[in-house]
Design brief:
Length: about 190
């Protein structure tokens, strides 16, 4: 069975975005961006893949993305209805009704049911959970792997990594990638029961 991978960036103090969904305060030096393009090019929006010149590279990690409305909204705000055209796209939202793009499926139901169905598919590639915090909290029971890109900055306030009730869930650290810039990528797998 394939895995649900929460691939996400956060500040040192655990925020994935600022109070108004800002992410432009995260520094992205060349060494780090090159690593992201090389290792997780599938997770880049289609326009960023073109800029990074990896748009012709076949997907090697993901073939599907699941995101919440707040993750999808910045693309809509600039007129992009299919921001991850190289992946199957699912947006979990009970309020989004005006997307008329056949490449994007809006899901107004149980996100756990959706990710369980996607994980059960026969595919060698995994499912990319792009966020946000409420969606990650809702599907926490099905997250198999966390790839946390920790930026060397303290936000002070903002959107946490997860929004959920008290639900201690053990993960094992399996890899650490560090960069001279202070960036760290922490790779966790769900702990064996």
């Amino acid at each position: 069975m394939r895995q649900l991978v929460y691939y996400i960036g956060q500040s040192i103090d655990g925020f994935i975005a600022g109070p108004n969904d800002e992410v432009d305060f995260y520094p992205v030096p060349e060494e780090y961006s090159t690593w992201m393009f090389t290792e997780f090019g599938d997770a880049l929006p289609t326009h960023a893949r073109k800029l990074a010149r990896v748009d012709d590279v076949p997907n090697s990690r993901f073939d599907t993305i699941v995101m919440g409305r707040r993750t999808y909204q910045p693309a809509l705000d600039v007129g992009i209805t299919s921001p991850y055209a190289h992946l199957r796209q699912y947006v979990v939202s009970s309020t989004l009704t005006d997307v008329h793009d056949p490449a994007v499926e809006v899901v107004d139901g149980d996100p756990l049911e959706l990710v369980r169905r996607l994980k059960a598919e026969d595919s060698p590639l995994d499912v990319y959970l792009a966020g946000g915090a409420a969606l990650a909290g809702a599907v926490l029971p099905e997250i198999d792997r966390l790839v946390v890109k920790q930026y060397p900055v303290v936000a002070g306030a903002g959107v946490p990594l997860f929004t959920t009730g008290f639900a201690p869930t053990a993960f094992e650290l399996t890899d650490v990638q560090s960069f001279g810039s202070g960036h760290v990528v922490l790779d966790y797998r769900r702990a064996s029961a």
